[in-house]
Design goal:
Blueprint lengths: L2 H4 L2 H10 L2 E2 L18 H11 L1 E6 L4 E4 L5 E4 L4 E2 L9 E9 L2 H6 L5 E4 L2 E17 L2 E2 L1 E2 L4 E6 L8 E7 L5 E5 L6 E5 L2 E8 L4 E7 L5 E2 L2 E3 L9 E7 L4 E9 L2 E3 L4 E2 L3 E9 L4 E9 L5 E3 L3 E3 L1 H9 L2
Parallel strand pairs: 7-13, 18-25
Antiparallel strand pairs: 1-2, 2-6, 3-4, 4-11, 5-10, 6-8, 7-8, 8-9, 8-16, 11-15, 12-13, 12-16, 14-15, 17-22, 18-21, 19-20, 19-23, 20-21, 23-24, 24-26
């Protein structure tokens, strides 16, 4: 662990924080999804763009980045390399997206479902981040162990592991375990953190498969008068800090995978685009076998929906 750098955090954290800015999105029109794409694809793309934080950095010097929600990224001097493996010289631009809470996961549509040797399972999550770096618009890589990450946590679950994320054909994030990874829980004077070394720049999730004794599929039904083409549904699990997308099944029905833990409290969340704006639905349930949840939508704005997510 890089204890010497941890001791330097306080001295230059404020200067680094001021070096961060979110991607500019003011006065940018909302993109229209191409024919055949889900109605919310453009919204999620815009939300991710707005959540993206940019940090300038010297490739030679490396240094510490502190993101808006407290994630710390500590780059070794000379950690950045080009696609062909040659060292990077000069200034680089590092971009970070934090999805540490259920609100983030829904707002950015980054669910926490993992691939366990071909079987999809719900993950207990300590938070996800996306890290990328460019120079002159060209994507960069990092050296092995060139990045040390600290993700803030209130709990510090010692079972946490590392997963990398990719999207399936329906746009759902699926996480796969790294072949070899190590996550520790470390107290630093600024708080408690999950800490690990990263060898690549991508979506990384700090989470693990929990052995739920009984699981089921859950259906959620929207009212007959409402369109499934303009509705997105998730199911959130507060005790797990986890979120799962519910896919459109048939008619007015959305279904989860067969991995929802029986007996667990959950919140079924829906967002719908209407002729006049948006409508949302929040239904708290205790999961029973093969249950079906009826959803009721009320008018909302995107700002109100985001605030409601933060209250989960």
């Amino acid at each position: 662990m890089k204890t010497s750098r941890a001791l330097l955090i306080l001295s230059f954290a404020f200067a680094l924080i001021w070096g961060c800015k979110k991607e500019e999105s003011d006065n940018t029109p909302t993109p229209t999804p191409p024919p055949g794409q889900p109605v919310f694809q453009a919204l999620f793309t815009e939300n991710i763009a707005e959540a993206t934080q940019s940090f300038p950095m010297s490739a030679a010097a490396g240094g510490l980045i502190i993101a808006a929600q407290g994630t710390q990224l500590d780059f070794d001097p000379g950690a950045f390399i080009n696609a062909d493996g040659t060292p990077v010289v000069g200034a680089v631009n590092v971009k970070v997206v934090e999805a540490l809470t259920m609100a983030d996961m829904i707002w950015l549509n980054k669910q926490t479902v993992g691939n366990d040797n071909g079987t999809l399972k719900l993950l207990r999550s300590g938070g996800a981040i996306s890290v990328s770096a460019t120079q002159g618009g060209s994507p960069l890589r990092i050296t092995e162990g060139g990045l040390f990450v600290r993700i803030p946590t209130d709990v510090g679950d010692p079972a946490m592991q590392l997963f990398s994320g990719s999207e399936d054909a329906d746009g759902n994030m699926i996480w796969s375990p790294f072949d070899s990874s190590s996550v520790s829980v470390d107290p630093i004077y600024t708080g408690l953190y999950y800490t690990f070394a990263a060898d690549s720049l991508q979506w990384i999730n700090c989470d693990y498969f929990y052995n739920y004794p009984s699981t089921t599929m859950v259906d959620a039904t929207i009212p007959p008068s409402q369109s499934s083409d303009s509705t997105h549904v998730w199911i959130a699990f507060p005790s797990e800090n986890a979120v799962m997308s519910m896919n459109h099944n048939t008619g007015q029905i959305y279904s989860s995978w067969q991995v929802v833990p029986v007996g667990m409290q959950a919140v079924v969340v829906g967002l719908q685009q209407t002729a006049t704006g948006y409508a949302s639905s929040f239904t708290t349930v205790t999961i029973t076998a093969s249950m079906s949840v009826s959803m009721t939508f009320t008018p909302t704005t995107l700002a109100e929906f985001e605030a409601d997510l933060n209250g989960l």
